[in-house]
Fold this sequence. Notes:
Elements: H1 2-7, E1 11-15, H2 22-33, E2 36-39, H3 40-53, H4 65-73, E3 77-81, E4 87-91, E5 94-95, H5 103-112, H6 116-127, E6 135-139, H7 142-146, E7 152-157, H8 160-173, H9 180-196, E8 209-212, H10 218-232
Parallel strand pairs: 1-6, 1-7, 2-6, 7-8
Antiparallel strand pairs: 3-4, 4-5
Helix pairs in contact: 2-10, 3-4, 3-5, 4-6, 5-9, 8-9
The protein binds cytidine-5'-diphosphate (CDP).
Residues 18, 23, 40-41, 44-45, 106, 109-110, 113, 139-141, 190, 194 line the site of cytidine-5'-diphosphate.
Amino acid sequence: xxxxxxxxxxxxxxxxxxxxxxxxxxxxxxxxxxxxxxxxxxxxxxxxxxxxxxxxxxxxxxxxxxxxxxxxxxxxxxxxxxxxxxxxxxxxxxxxxxxxxxxxxxxxxxxxxxxxxxxxxxxxxxxxxxxxxxxxxxxxxxxxxxxxxxxxxxxxxxxxxxxxxxxxxxxxxxxxxxxxxxxxxxxxxxxxxxxxxxxxxxxxxxxxxxxxxxxxxxxxxxxxxxxxxxxxx
Length: 233
Ligand code: CDP
């Protein structure tokens, strides 16, 4: 019964690799529609940060799958909306909104995300974000695994060069100067790990609309998504 009522709530899934623009586009679309938003990557980043703080050995990560799954199950996190439209992320009473955004945490997140028990532990938590009037879900497997019944699935792409440049600009805004070649290398490594993992790899759902954001402005991509929303919801 619970499942059936949840399934009546509309979902738009926005998947894609690092730097493809998922986060910004999802936020704008959710704001425009007045819908809720799930940043699923933040959950994987939180597991990674909690694991680092607990001293999990990332050099032998496969051997740590049980402790990682426990960390994922017990994640004590609150997403607190702020007046400026952003979200404060509080884990164990600590504001980790900034800490989880580092490149280091992104790489660690992609390592924990390759562990099947971690994904299983986070599945239900992600589905709980499906609340009225609707949900925009941002991630890698939103359309393929978490919300396969979504009526609108979007997959964003862009070349590693462009995604690296975007990531560099993002970091610059937070006062961090990063090396472009290094960022592109990190992105390519993360793409390879996300696309080649056995469980929930990064692939577009068969029924996804694919948008190459390389030459488009944020506004243009948001418009394409909203036009597609009008056709299905
Ligand atoms: O912002 P960015 O695209 O760099 O990363 P993110 O969306 O915050 O995700 C960080 C990492 O979590 C990714 O590299 C994936 O390995 C993993 N992830 C995942 O496996 N499944 C999701 N639904 C979301 C993120």
